């Protein structure tokens, strides 16, 4: 074993999940109530900082891109195009720092799902997982949604193949996004729970939205991070994942393929355990929650680094601290208490 | 053959005597032929001295196991104690030969002989003998043992571990095994008990991993001693084992500090792999080290493969803990029974690098098809990586001592000249 700096050792032995839990609470508070405290972050954020929430201090990039693309072809080559590029740049400036950790640490909708998981654990219900076939089949949905949310706004002004799209289809994804309906509830705003009877399009779109909110609540109760698997933001992020400064890498030579990382993975990424060739191991469903790194018992096999500086490395010592000995002390105490009470 | 006949009684008597003699002879070689054995090895020597005479786990329910695929945590969690009964004695090998073809693997023969004569570690009386289907010979041995009324339970191990199907199949097998355990022990598996069992085993693993890392740092313990340490994990009380390995670790750390190393600077560092070395069949590591080599690590199912890998649980409820335990006994295993088994190659290469191995000695038991068939591919890969390999086919019979000595001497000399 190489000698490690004391500070690094402390970090590698730490419990990142606990840290993440608190970060999530803080960011949920900021991104749902921040506006009330005059916090203004930015629009075009790589998370569901939903503008439909009154207290939202920023905006989700997906709503931005849908608005901007609701335009004619010709104007795309003018100022509109520049606006689109600047907002993409804004998105990237934020994204580049945290990579997919935006999903795992910051996104309020992601946090909400983790809380629903906690609720399920409180009741002691088992979770479900997709089998391999369904996983592969359902995986592409987020990309389809992403393509649609880009093409539909364009199609409203510029009919594709002569198919007319009604104006009611503007910001199509927002209309079916569960965040629009659920997140405002946290500010006491129930106004999003409605079906818009203006015309057929709005009836269909708002009903789909209601349905997706219901599916979101049920789905995330039975499956960890249920919605993230279908999230087009996740797909968009993954396209740019390689240029991000925050990275997760794997040293295949050190891997025993014990599968610990796959076991604890909330989104069920198999490659994390089985892929021993790729160095960059961030997959499209990954949210960089670092649970796999915590569960890896091989020194430096999995690593999270920022611009080349190692932040959190898998370590044997850390693994046993988290999974073994510290809890054993707790258990001994439990046993002692039990014996005393006898 | 009828149990309780006169012949059986005679066989049992002579078998036990021969077994005890074998242990005595091997222990004497292990302790007396080498200077300055670590003080804390005394505990482990003693465990083996009492191997045939002691009364292990008295008053506790014992579940006997074979191979590395029996989930020990589940056994502990149902209030029983697991004891691995894979045997290494020539005495019982000869008994097993009465039931099995001559060219059967000696480990299988020896284990069947020991089961038949009830000469098990510490005279345990197992409620159940769990037999994983890790090779054809073990499967058939199970059938024979059932014929002679031994409480065998077949644990179906899938032939591959990479596919998701195999994993799910194995998960179901383990669930069935839990039911069987609950029936046998009369204790229900609970969340609290399983959690405690997982933590207890994790503690032993943490201590073992420390031991393994100390062996990487400097040559402070002979392979023959290290094998005894891991071999005693088969049957020892896990808490006591953990405690004593911890003590041994402390002593080894002191030895590293005082630079009290074993062997010479040019002693070849050997990695042993292949069919498992199980006490008292210690002839290979003993010979290597008597001839001036040092066994720095072993890739055996009787050593590191058995203890190294860990259980990681996400949600501490039975619905997640049981599959987590099941995964640990399937996914990381480098048993040649699985196809493909590239993990074994990778593990060997990793060990060679980390333990600065000079040469590999590949042991195959006569009749052990799986290790034999893998030997060629492994040999080729090692050659490509510039590692010299000696392939040895042997069994529990001490007769090939002379021939082994000549071959080992030549191999070790060639390694020494290279250094």
Strands, helices and their partners?
The complex is a heterodimer of chains A (342) and B (419).
Chain A (H helix, E strand, L loop, with lengths): L5 H7 L3 H18 L27 H9 L3 H4 L2 H20 L2 H6 L1 H16 L8 H7 L2 H17 L14 H5 L1 H5 L17 H23 L9 H9 L5 E5 L9 H5 L6 H4 L16 H5 L6 E5 L2 E5 L2 H26 L1
Antiparallel strand pairs in A: 1-2, 2-3
Helix pairs in contact in A: 3-5, 3-9, 7-12, 9-13
Chain B lengths: L5 H27 L9 H8 L12 E4 L6 H6 L3 E4 L5 H7 L9 H12 L10 E5 L3 H12 L4 E4 L8 H22 L5 H27 L5 H9 L6 H20 L11 E6 L8 H8 L3 E6 L4 H4 L10 H11 L13 H13 L4 E7 L3 H16 L3 E7 L6 H18 L1
Helix pairs in contact in B: 1-4, 4-5, 5-6, 7-13, 8-10, 8-13, 11-16
Keywords:
heterodimer, A: 342 residues, mainly alpha, Alpha-Beta Plaits, three-stranded antiparallel sheet, 54% helix, 4% strand, B: 419 residues, alpha/beta, Rossmann fold, four-stranded parallel sheet, 16 helices
Provide an overview of this structure.
The complex is a heterodimer of chains A (342) and B (419). Chain A has 2 domains: 6-14 and 246-322, 2-Layer Sandwich (Alpha-Beta Plaits), CATH 3.30.70; 16-238, no CATH class. Chain A is 54% helix and 4% strand. Chain A has 17 helices and 3 strands. Chain A has helices at residues 6-12, 16-33, 61-69, 73-76, 79-98, 101-106, 108-123, 132-138, 141-157, 172-176, 178-182, 200-222, 232-240, 260-264, 271-274, 291-295, 316-341; strands at residues 246-250, 302-306, 309-313. In chain A, helix 3 packs antiparallel against helix 5 (79-98), helix 7 packs across helix 12 and helix 9 crosses helix 13. Chain B is built from 16 helices and 8 strands. Chain B has a 4-stranded parallel sheet with strand order 2-1-3-4, with helices on both faces. A 4-stranded parallel sheet of chain B has the order 6-5-7-8, with helices on both faces. In chain B, helix 8 (191-217) packs parallel to helix 13 (318-328) and helix 11 (283-290) crosses helix 16 (401-418). The mean pLDDT of chain B is 94. The interface between A and B is medium-sized, with 33 and 36 residues.
